[in-house]
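Q: Hi! First time doing this. I have a protein sequence and I read that you can turn it into a structure. Is that right? Here it is:
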Amino acid sequence: MILYGKIVDEPRYDQIEETNETYFYITVEDLKQNKQKVALSYNVSNDYEIYQKGKNIRAEIKVAEDINLNIATKINFITKQELIDEALKEYRKDNISLDNYINVCKNNLQNENTKEQNNLYNQEIKRNNILSFKDKEMIENLTEDEIYRKIESYLKESLQLADIDTDIIGIQLVGSRTKGTNKEISDLDVLVEYNNSEIHEDDFFNYLNDEDDRLYINGVKVDFNPINEERSGYNIKSWLKENYNYEKNLETEDEEEDEI
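A: Yes, that's right. Below is the predicted 3D structure, encoded as structure tokens:
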């Protein structure tokens, strides 16, 4: 078994109760953000100083089931980019989630210079909204255009930070705030159409709506609903027709297009 991950604690010694033997171990956070205790076999260097907290490793592991212990038979130190690349491979194989992959990226992109060096993709963020609600104040003291610009900026920064290989080909405000039926605590709902069908809609949803790092606009929580036509069969227009009674708005939009 191969283990990729980051050393997240200082190396320690422990004792196996069954055999009363002392062993040297490191704690590794794997690609799924699970912490694993890894003992070092006799043919692996047990030089305390080289296993520094924060270093990334590739370890060949065997499992001693009788004492419930992972034992590393070989360890190589790897770069941040190598760990990110491996996480991307595992995500594409469906072995880890999009959230797992993004967390590996975040934990290994520590400053702006590193981000610039490691950004794999130059994502395009398009608005292309079908319906317009310029007559409604969806968020106090903000115009519809200002709201969209804040959303676009957030999406671009988020995709670049995590090196997610997709373009956003449409953004559409929906929900109670566009209808004027919202309460003061209502979220702002945003439909996001993207073009990379390798990315699961549920995974993208969980990333964009992560409670620890989600978007708020003037105190209003933004709730993203990502859709991909190849995965669900919906683009923004077909989703709106099926889920919302927006005929009046669509007629207004069609008239504006005819005038152009």
